[in-house]
Amino acid sequence: MKIAFILGTRPEGIKLAPIINKLKENPDFAALVINTGQHADLLDEVLQTFAIKPDYNLKLMKPNQSAELVVREAIPVISVILKKEKPDLVFVVGDTATTFTGAFIAFHERIPVVHVEAGLRTDNLYSPFPEEMYRQLVTRLATYHLAPTEQNKENLIKEHIDERYIYVVGNPVIDALFYIHNNVPPNVAETSQYVKSNKRLILLTTHRKENFHHLTQIHNAILEITDHHKEVEVIFPVHPNPNVRNQISKSMREHDRIHIIAPLDYASFTYLLKHAYLVVTDSGGIQEEAPAFNVPVIVVRDSTERTEGVEAGTLILAGTDKQSIEETIETMLTDTSLHQHTAEAVNPYGDGQTSERIVEWLKQYLTRHRP
């Protein structure tokens, strides 16, 4: 059975890599990897780390590209590839322009779509933008829905998705995280300088498009906290998108304990995450990754599609107002019992066995559909 994996960004690569590599262990399956190149350099590093060589590299990335440009350019190319390769299934993950495009073309080719990380919802089409719309559209295009949690499954059922086609498997990002932590050494020269026994390390990530007009509030809160707490060191890997960099240059002033750095390779990022005292983020995947290392997460967004983390106590939703963010971080730094409770909360997003569950499901699928 031939299975196509369509990906284009670093998070997609991280989440699909464990499934692709687990699939390679079974001779009944052939994995076809199609890389749109939406985030070229960042994704290439991830695929090299997992020893995955794409069968097709479309190299669609252009300077200052928009999501709609990715969709426009990817549609005709992916269409030609799927017509030629005729895979039995197409896997997509998450909620990117690549995810939507892959599902859209597969649907038109009448190839069943398997959506990994299905059922995440904020129910606000503009938060996160455009991801919430993409994930809802992919739900309508997909045949099979691999949901990380029971809550995600319930979200899909509420939208009248047939329960027989929904499978709760966890999120493969935890598989990837554990693999990297156990098997791939970080760039010590790049990371060890930030891990100091007498400092509390805050790992900061902000890049969401809908948060651009809130960045001054978010970054001013970080600056205030760093000024007031001499034991705090902030590491801020900045997304390569020039629009993100331009916004950050306007909203974050220089500080001797705030280190604005280039994106890290995944092993080095995992190392810093493991040693962080706290994560402050508007990103998605890190809301799932940090709790796997017992690191509390403060989400600087007005909503999150990962509501299970809020309910489980691994995440705290602080909003985008400076005072609210500052108060939330201050409490986490000064209330040791709250920090401990948040750190020890059970991660609802997976146990590192998701890729095995997905391959077992594929074996059952193959048995049912074998000619």
UniProtKB/TrEMBL annotation:
Residues 22-363 form the UDP-N-acetylglucosamine 2-epimerase domain. Pfam families: Epimerase_2. Keywords: Isomerase. Its EC number is 5.1.3.14. Belongs to the UDP-N-acetylglucosamine 2-epimerase family. The lineage of its organism: Bacteria, Bacillati, Bacillota, Bacilli, Bacillales. This is UDP-N-acetylglucosamine 2-epimerase (non-hydrolyzing). One of its GO terms (molecular function) is UDP-N-acetylglucosamine 2-epimerase activity. InterPro entries: UDP_GlcNAc_Epimerase_2_dom (IPR003331), WecB-like (IPR029767). It comes from Terribacillus saccharophilus.
